[in-house]
Amino acid sequence: MQFERARLEINGHVGTLIMDHPDVLNAVSPEMLSGLQAALNHAEDPKHGLRALVFTGAGRGFCAGANLGGGPATLSAGEGTHARDAGAALETMYHPFLRRLRNLNMPIVTAVNGVAAGVGMSFALMGDMVLAARSAYFLQAFRRIGLVPDGGSTWLLPRLVGLARAKELSLMGEKLPAEKALEWGLINRVHDDATLMDEAQALAQELASGPTIALAAIRNLYWQSPDNTYEEQLNAERWAQRTAGRAEDFTEGVAAFLGKRKAAFKGK
Question: Which of 172, 192, 244, 251 is in the most buried spot, having the most CB atoms within 10 Å?
Fold first, then answer.
């Protein structure tokens, strides 16, 4: 399915959400964000039966950040240096999309097939499993144009790689190669460029064959965890377990365990 500067491809229970503006390495524009939101509407429509999502970019890059082709005015809500509000677009366009990804009711596999810079790096890190091509790299590019990190990166990075490395990435604005990102614990796996998408699809298919309700609850629990106390997290687990335990997949999982066979989960 083609949308504005975005595509959604469906293969069984797996959807592949593609940022589709390769001429500018999939730099993000209002048009792309609108297209991605429309694609997510289809991905979440129960009639399509999707149970996992791959998120990637078309061509040779994942996402080069915000599209600044129109100059600083593209991020502005006013005229002149003092009137300009470079954060307005975040509030009205980027944040709603990021929240959609955070609250998605299925696991996300990001396949970083090239540069992931600026907000593109934030997009990449929204994956529950982050896979990268060996040639890929990550870049906190904001300081290069006189802006601060956004897209939730100042929340994500310290929790993934620690405060010292998070500040280094943001203050220095240096490229982080995929292999080093794996070593730092920023991402999950690195694959050869030629096999990245096959590996991402295989992983997504494996997740899509799992107990979808439980997997959605797992991703939500880990999103909640950094801001919760231990007692709050115990309580969150208690209520998530009630939801998972009422699903048909729990009954099937127990039956399969007792019968010493592989479970046939239906995502219900």
Answer: 244
Give me the CATH number covering residue 45. Answer: 3.90.226.10
> Are residues 153 and 234 located together in one domain of the fold?
no
Across residues 120-141, what is the average pLDDT? Answer: 98
DSSP H/E element including 262 = none
The residue to which tokens 């964000």 are assigned: 33
**pLDDT, the chain, mean:** 94
CA separation (Å) from 83 to 31, 73, 75, 79, 86?
Answer: 24, 11, 12, 5, 10
Alpha-carbon dihedral sign for residues 190, 191, 192, 197: negative
| Domain contains 264 | no
Q: Where are the alpha helices (DSSP H) in 15-57?
A: 30-44
Q: Are residues 204 and 226 in the same domain?
A: no
pLDDT of residue 73: 43
Q: Are strands 108-112 and 129-133 parallel, antiparallel or unpaired?
A: parallel
Could you tell me the pTM of the whole model?
0.93
